[in-house]
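Listing S7. Sequence submitted for prediction.
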Amino acid sequence: MHKELRWKIPLILFVIAGFSWLAWPLEEKINLGLDLQGGVHLVLEVEAEKAVEFSMEQRTEDIKHALGAEDIEVDRVVLNKDTNVIRILLVDAIDTPGAETVLKNYTALEKKDVLRDGLELVYQLRDEEYQYIQDNAIQQALEVIRNRIDIVGLSEPTIQVQGTRRILVQFPGVKNPKKIIDLLGQTARLEFKMVDESISPEEARTRGVPEGSELLEERVFDKTTKKEIKKIPYVIKKRVLLTGDMLTAADIRYDQDFNEPYVSLTFNSLGAKTFFELTRDNVDKRLAIVLDGRVYSAPVIREPIAGGQAQISGSFTSEEAKNLAIALRAGALPAPLTMLENRTVGPSLGRDSVEAGINSIIIGMVAVVLFILIYYRLSGVVAVGALLLNLVMLLGALAYFGASLTLPGIAGIILTVGMAIDANVLIFERIREEIRVGKTVRTAIDAGFAKAFRTIVDANVTTFIAAIVLFQFGTGPIKGFAITLCIGIAASMFTAVFVSRATFDLFMSRKKIERLSI
């Protein structure tokens, strides 16, 4: 046996065994795309203007706190949500320079006017900042959606931006979209705020809510029936002391008394420090845990809480607590999502497409195999073996990477079958040319593989580059085609150049061949 065959043959056998193991059983290892097995198709719109509104509300409260920290007397700070204008009304014009100095720290705002002899300062959100917040909200929503889906573990979803503020989400194989919609619909905006105990909720309803506060409710559910039995109103200060952005963990737990689920929270080092300081500075006061504008609990702070641990309870079912924990771990959406389209693709289309795709592969394979065997005779058997190994490697690689097989992906497999044979055709024609000019079989084989190699590499590299471009800029189905094509090109290079050559060398090493059946 030729020296090189001593390592080539074991390598080829190892590749065959390895990729066969990866691909078997095929129906369990290969994920079918939405167009083949059905699933859920959603189009969501990000309410980006809400992200601007949240940002401006937070800036308004920060300005109040910053002015108070500088002992600047403020009558009130008013936000116009429609125009994104903040009006700072001062008590004494002598504080105007100091207030303007404080406002210089807010670079996202620009001064528009000074009214009433300096008592009223008018600032507006800059246009470029307005656009940045909206654009960032789209990208952040995309990442949050992707994180939530990754935590759930759904296979091969398609998640991408459509237009300026829409997000396309597709889940192959998901039969019940309600759970997914509920998970994605949660804004999960977690905030810790102080309860305003200067006025009761009843007084706030009759006399009006004080400046800088708002009226929120806690919904109480029956522990047995899980039905809402009452709502508890709270007057909550608008200033946010701590947010869910500082969470490192959110897990479902069960209390020991009633076995009721709740969500346990763990903050990062900065969050733990902030939580400790706010509980230390507000002992015997009530701290409200607010999620998406709803109060979940408002316990009295009995002592400073160190360690960065907190919890959210609220008569959850286990499924609700689990979804809330997932949403909090994945991060809050920067703005609410509106469902524009919700379609469930039926499995009948998938079965028809799979059958048609499989039939096309079988018919194409049979046609190619018959042509190769008739035209190239015994040498065609080598090409057919390489082709079968190419298909095994392709399916094994798809299974290993967890790629979804879509209808365009099936087209990629068919194209790969043709490309795999094409490489062998180039080699065989070169060998024929060498034999025609009178060279021996061994010399003709060596020259045929050597001369065809550069052409094969050039053709495959250019196609591979095109496939990379398709993957980078294409949508979900196009990406499926590109992935299949890339894997197929790599496999065909290996089978046509390496495996076919090793097979010829193996036969040539057994006996001296004077005439080649090609």
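Caption to Listing S7: primary sequence and predicted structure tokens for the chain studied. The chain has three domains: 5-36+346-510, 50-129, 186-343. The CA atoms of residues 147 and 153 lie 10 Å apart.
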